[in-house]
Amino acid sequence: MASGAPVTTLIEPLRPMLTQAKATHLVLFTKYRHEARFPLGNYQVGNGMIEGAGLYVDQTKWTRVAGTNERAPGFLSPYVYFQVSLVDLASSTVLANETLLGATTRSAARGESGGPWDAMTDEQKVKALVGIARKEAFAGTSRVLADP
Length: 148
What we know:
By secondary structure, this protein is α+β, with helices and mostly antiparallel strands. It has one domain (4-146). The protein is built from three helices and eight strands. A hairpin with a 6-residue loop joins strand 5 (49-64) and strand 6 (71-88). The longest helix is centred in the last third of the chain and has 25 residues, at 122-146. The protein is elongated, with a radius of gyration of 19 Å.
């Protein structure tokens, strides 16, 4: 989002509401496409390109639960990949932006079935996604507001 053109396209439909609110700046979150990278021990793993928010499932990489000898093939990784930008509405230019890549990894050994999808309950999956999004949004917003 280095040029102003994509920003203009995104904010034009909002312009009447932003004008009425007398807004001068906008903090804008957009999904970001990047190579998959998930923490696994002291290194990162992943294959392919991902964007936005979701759950990455690997069924082949052998993992273990930290502190135990429980091992199983695969892992589940909730992730949130996005960019936060500070936009000057008068000029429709990006004043600052930050790329945010947040993720956590859960070994398949933690699941009831030993499969990666069961490494977390549905509630844990949602809670992890929301937690990662909040953490990354707070950190990224703080940086773009301090940057200009």
